[in-house]
């Protein structure tokens, strides 16, 4: 799997654009590239655009294995959002299954989307955080 990694300045997130056949090594390498990005900060969101991927020869056991690959990155990723953008079809359904298994491996909130605009909006919502409530003892 080939991929590119960059930073989206309009919303504080790192993006990944993947091409080729999805493999465990490719997912591991892409995730490693995200956490090693010079502007990466723990808790940032990630927008992973997998619409350019051509081969998804994955069975249910492979999906679980891909989710387990995320475990070692849990501390570096933190609690941001991960938006997966995929073409419709079986792959989209398998990504939703991956989301369930991945939730046991790391703390990121995972969303699966068919369109880039929806994913971008969802990540943007995470960037707008309400200020913490006032401490009643200080008021």
List strands and helices in order, with pairings.
Elements: E1 2-8, E2 13-21, H1 24-35, E3 45-55, H2 60-68, H3 74-77, E4 81-85, H4 90-102, E5 109-113, H5 116-127
Describe the structure.
With 139 residues, the chain is of the alpha/beta class. It has a single domain, classed as Transcription Regulator spoIIAA, CATH 3.30.750. 36% of the residues lie in helices and 27% in strands. It is built from five helices and five strands; from the N terminus they run ββαβααβαβα. Strands 1-2-3-4-5 form a five-stranded mixed β-sheet, with helices on both faces. Strand 2, helix 1 and strand 3 form a beta-alpha-beta unit. The protein is globular, with a radius of gyration of 16 Å. The protein starts with a strand and ends in a 12-residue tail after the last helix.
Question: Care to give the gist of this entry?
Answer:
This protein is of the alpha/beta class. The chain is built from five helices and five strands. The protein is globular.
